[in-house]
Amino acid sequence: MKIALINENSQANKNEMIYNVLSKIANKYNHEVLNFGTKGIEDKTQLTYVEVGLLTAILINSRTVDFVVTGCGTGEGAMLACNSFPNVLCGHIVDPSDAYMFMQINNGNVASFPFAKGFGWGAELNLEYMFDELFKHIPGQGYPIERAEPEKRNKLILDSLKKITHQDMLNILKNIDKDFLLHTISSKSFKELFLKYAPENEISKYIKSLLD
Known about the structure:
Elements: E1 2-7, H1 15-28, E2 32-35, H2 49-61, E3 67-72, H3 76-83, E4 90-92, H4 96-106, E5 110-114, H5 123-135, H6 148-165, H7 169-175, H8 178-184, H9 188-197, H10 202-211
Parallel strand pairs: 1-2, 1-3, 3-5, 4-5
Helix pairs in contact: 1-5, 2-3, 2-8, 4-5
């Protein structure tokens, strides 16, 4: 599985630490981590939490990655921005039980973390435990187990509702403010990783045409 890391600009100074902890857990389960930044205050592309949502949607809808780990100061803004796009199901994760139940009950594809609020002693340990609970289990098995079948049915209903209530991602990209879109995909990290990993489809073709 390919996992993208995206954090917004207020937490740019924590990017390297988050990447190292996430990579430690991902490597344990044979997953690959792609770091899309924001990579420190020196990164020329300082992503807002709204741009985090757009970038997440591009990566998920183009099938460049399978899962996105993201966040902001509280994790709330990034979660809201991500969930405003089609085919993105983002949970707000504060502790390991959140991570476990989100994956087992909701079976989402994006997790948003508070990288400032409550981020004190042992924060990197809590991150490690949360990342571990995200990726060590087969997702969508239900919790508690006697609730597994209705939870799976509800997930399918939610997915079908999002297809009705959200526009097609390609249509969004073609109608969104062009300067906003171009800034979101302007980082060196994005250009290198997207061109390397994005499969050929209508979304990736459109994004590549903008990069050209």
